Amino acid sequence: MKLGLIAKKINADLIGDINKEIHGVSFKRKSKKNIIYISNAPKDINPNEYGAVLTSFENKDYFPNSNILISKNPKLSFALLTSLFSTKSSKAKINKTFSSDGDIFCGTNVYIGSNFTYGCNVIIEDDVKIGDNVALGHNICIHKGSIIGNNVTIRSGSIIGSEGFGNTFDYEKKWLHINHLGKVIINDGVVIGSNCTIDRGTVDDTIIHKGVIMDNQIHIGHNVEIGEYTAIAAKTGIAGSCVIGKRNLIGGMVGIVDHIVTSDDVTISATSTVNKNIPESGVYTGIFPILRHSLWKRVAFWVTKLDKIIKSLNINKL
């Protein structure tokens, strides 16, 4: 699609080449055919590695030599942009080449390796790639474009590659969904428990690295990256764009807010809430009674200072 037409469809002003051809949207995949969305002042980003930049009027001077799409509401324009490049899977159909006691429904351009086993009511959408020695339980849906490596087990009821929870208000203050154009990549030796949900990336990919093991009823948000040999217990939720280090041990009912980064070899106690980065290995616990947020901020501030206060007052240990 040409930039001039894109600008009209997403309610943005264009500075640059109206005939520039664009093939997609990305944050990580650098290409002169992609648009990059930058909401804040750019950090370590070379906009000239992309075909165009979508941003606000305040940021336009950061990109003097780029094609720029300037929007009064960049997030809304981004949502509209994702809808332009969103594709729907074709209707699933039975692939007669498989034989099993279960039922499987496959889309088009699906590749499945050797020693593949599955249960009842398995759905595999278009453009999915599955390696060797993969076992799927009952009632599993693998959404379009997902990539699953070798020696992977996915237990019953899990959904791989579902739409993430990305939304923004339109000009009428109604919710507009941001289409998710990325995919899910599950590497070798991963075990995923029952009734887990792993969302596809917004424009780049959600990645589960090799050897990760997941308990039941876990939600992994869009663009999350889980490091090698991490273990995650039941009912944990990891919000979008988190990067979890290698060999993390995450207890049950842990909540990790968006854009968190953890180091390698981190242990997080059950029911903890993680709302800041964990830059060093070790054992961490974040449990606190629920309070009004304004009071919680004040209490939490002083709790973190108690050790220094005691030392400054020269109080003996109890």
Number of strands: 31
Largest sheet: 9 strands, parallel
Q: What proportion of the residues form beta strands (DSSP E)?
A: 15-25%
Strand order of the largest sheet: 6-8-11-14-19-22-25-28-30
The average pLDDT is 89
CATH architecture of the domain at 3-84: 3-Layer(aba) Sandwich
Tell me roughly what share of residues is in helical segments: 10-25%
What is the name of the CATH superfamily of the domain at 3-84? MurE/MurF, N-terminal domain
**Spans of 5+ residues with little confidence (pLDDT < 50)?**
91-97
Written overview of the protein:
There is one protein chain. By secondary structure, the protein is α/β, with parallel strands linked by helices. Among the domains are: 3-84, MurE/MurF, N-terminal domain (Udp-n-acetylmuramoylalanyl-d-glutamate--2,6- Diaminopimelate Ligase, Chain: A, domain 1, 3-Layer(aba) Sandwich); 292-318, no CATH class. 12% of the residues lie in helices and 25% in strands. The protein has a nine-stranded parallel beta sheet, with no helix packed on it. An eight-stranded parallel beta sheet has the order 10-13-18-21-24-27-29-31, with no helix packed on it. The longest helix is centred in the last third of the chain and has 21 residues, at 293-313. It is flat, with a radius of gyration of 23 Å. The N and C termini lie far apart (70 Å).
